[in-house]
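Order emerges. For instance:

***
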Amino acid sequence: QVQLVESGGDLVQPGGSLRLSCVFSGRLFRLYAMGWYRQGPGKQRELVTTITSAGSTNYADSVKGRFTVSRDNAKNTVYLQMSNLKPEDTAVYLCNANTKIWTQTYDYWGQGTQVTVSS
């Protein structure tokens, strides 16, 4: 069974930076595509970024140039470096792990970490 634990959320002023971490507990982390999603107050969950098992990345237009996703397979951890934060980035940020082995899809979510951007 896989568990995902996010950390690093905080209250930060506009223009500030934060780094989120998501620790993957389980086997075969290197086979999983990892994603960061967010859900702001009164909003639907939205994709922020993904990083494949091979390290390819994809970003939502709203965060391109400000956010950077990375993974450390030795530490079973994925990171989200966020800079030039804006009030509209305020949300619970959730980590997702997804893979397909043979015909079986495995999909896991963390509990989330709160990011609040406010002066």
Observations:
- The chain has a mean pLDDT of 97.
